[in-house]
Each structure stands twice: as structure tokens, then as C-alpha cells.
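A further point concerns the way the authors explain their paired sequence and structure data. For illustration, here is how one protein appears when written out as sequence plus C-alpha cells:
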Amino acid sequence: MPTVSRLLKPSAILWVGVYVVSIVALNKLYVALPMVSTPMGDFSWANLIVGGVFVLRDYAQRSIGHYVLLATLAAGIATWFAVDPFVAVASVTAFALSEMTDWAVFSFTRRPLQSRILISSAISVPVDTLAFLYLIGQLSPASFSLECLSKVAGVIILWAILRAGLRRSPALVS
């Protein structure tokens, strides 16, 4: 269990704040950006950012432990007020399911942080995609596949950026 001083460290506040704001901003993008029709089904450019949210959650959890679930709840409440309720319900439900999956894998896997990010995202990305697309009425094999691929790309891109940028600070990446 993290101490109060650990919860109030500037780096913890930064990671948790960026994580919460990214969830709300992402949901705003789902409403603001038009869907793109493809032969495989509808696609939102916002899906490229979703992968990054999964990685940010991992860094937030590394900073504040299991209290990250409270941050996820706060982001869900903020999403309700900032986004169309229909999208908010779908998003909050999908995030809750995927974040619980992500949290469990991240928490109980005793591997280096970089490995936990990739393993937890590999499981939680399909959970999030399935729930969200089903709840907004856009679930098809084609759109599910395309969105999972775009989220995995986002995870890998942000993971690589964070790893390269934080390489000088082993406490944050190991």
C-alpha cells in the first residue's frame, strides 16, 4: 500500500492527472471526430489514442498502486459530464471492464514494467473494443479487428516513446 507521501509525489500526481485527462479527452474525440467508413467497417481516428491510455494507466498504477482504480472512477464520472451520455455509458462500461482486466494482469504479473504494459494491453484491448463497439451498436468482425489493431499500434508507439524518453530514469521504466 503506497504511503501518503508517495501518493502526493509530483510524479504520481502527473501520471494520474495525465491518465484521467486522457480518458476524458479521448471520449470527447469520439464525439467530435467523424467516423470513417471503410470496407472493414466504421473506424474512428480516436482509436489510435486509446492504446496510449492503457500505457498511461500502467504508469499511474506504478505511481499510486491500486488507488489507480479510484482515478479510473474519477475519469468515468468526469466523462459522464463532458461527453454525450450514450457514448459516456458505452465508454465508461468498456473502460471499467478493460481497466479491471488491465489492472489485474498488471498487478499480478511479476515481470518488468515494459513486459507488463504489453501483456496487460494485449488482454485489455480486445475487452475494451468488444464492449465499446457492442454498446454503441457498431460491433462487426471487421471493425473489431481494425480497432484492435489501431489500439495495439497506439500501445506500441507510446510504449516505445515512453521507454526511450524515460530510459535515463530507471525507477520509472523498470
